Amino acid sequence: MPHTLSVDAPEQGVRLITLQRPEALNALNTQLLDELAAELALAEQDAETRAVVLTGSRKAFAAGADIKEMAERDLVGILEDPRVAHWQRIAAFSKPLIAAVNGFCLGGGCELAMHADILIAGEDARFGQPEINLGIMPGAGGTQRLLRAVGKSLAMQMVLSGQAIDARHAQRAGLVSEVTLPELTIERALAIARVIAQKAPLAVRLAKEALLKAEDTDLASGLRFERHAFTVLAGTADRAEGIRAFQEKRRPEFTGR
Ligand code: CAA
Question: Distance between CA atoms of 117 and 123, rounded to whole angstroms?
Fold first, then answer.
């Protein structure tokens, strides 16, 4: 039973994970990262779960790594930091992950949001990497994923100045796909998750993997992977069902095979 987050099943095929450390603006301590990684592993294993929405509170998606916990770690503690393994487990999640972001989305919180495949933000969301103000730098993918998302100039500005950007700026820069009224952010993320949950699971999984390849491989390798994945899907029952349903003018019933 997790203590730092709640898990609901608001739609068929969709899990909603809500970070719940209101006393620390959802700062990501070891326990929270451990519990989040464990919940994603459960969602990974559950064939019924087709997509996950991750959210925080209206005031904060997450205000970063837990600075009070960081204060207790010396260099040896950092080298043996169990959170590194938790981050790796979160990054390995292979089903669609949608972040519904309101309020502060800072430091490790922004890095966590960037682990999501789709980001939906409320108008009041603020994205930033303020680690430089603490004499450190992002350590959970912030320099790499932010630059890939928003480009060099804005990533440099955010990481080196520590200054945050608002939701509209984040959308213009490509970090966020949609901006909503803050009270509609989760609803919108769930609606997108519901649509994805109805698609053929193998196609969704391979399409996500292929899209992520574009971030860390050259074009020729990415195209090779895409062709391979496309060929794999050609042998699935869901491809046959999708084409048959189109011809019969009905909704497809995908089985994940
Ligand atoms: N860690 C631990 N506690 C935090 C926290 C954090 N990252 N952010 C906020 N809190 C706590 C505050 O200490 C406070 O608790 P107390 O009442 O017990 O003092 C409570 O949450 C509410 O916060 P504030 O009173 O500060 O709320 P505010 O509305 O005045 O300010 C804020 C909000 C601007 C987000 C401010 O809290 C803030 O600057 N937080 C730190 C943001 C930050 O620097 N994040 C980066 C962390 S380093 C990192 O993430 C490293 C990495 O990449 C892995």
Answer: 19
CA angle, residues 170, 176, 178, in degrees to nearest 5: 110
- The interaxial angle of helices 201-216 and 219-234, nearest 10 deg, is 170
Strand 14-19 relative to strand 5-11, pairing: antiparallel
60-62/104-106 β-pairing? parallel
113 lines ligand 1 (CB under 6 A): no
Q: Is the CB of 158 within 6 Å of ligand 1?
A: no
The C-alpha atoms of residue 176 and residue 46 are separated, in whole angstroms, by 28
Kindly report the pTM of this predicted structure.
0.96
Strands 126-128 and 118-122, bridge-based pairing: unpaired
Domains and CATH numbers, the chain: 5-197 (3.90.226.10), 201-247 (1.10.12)
How do residues 178-211 score in pLDDT, each as one tens digit?
999 999 999 999 999 999 999 999 999 999 999 9
Residue with CA at minimum distance from ligand 1 atom 32:
63
Nearby residues of 178 by Cβ (< 8 Å), 6 or more positions away: 120, 121, 171, 188
Cα(223) to ligand 1 centroid in Å equals 42
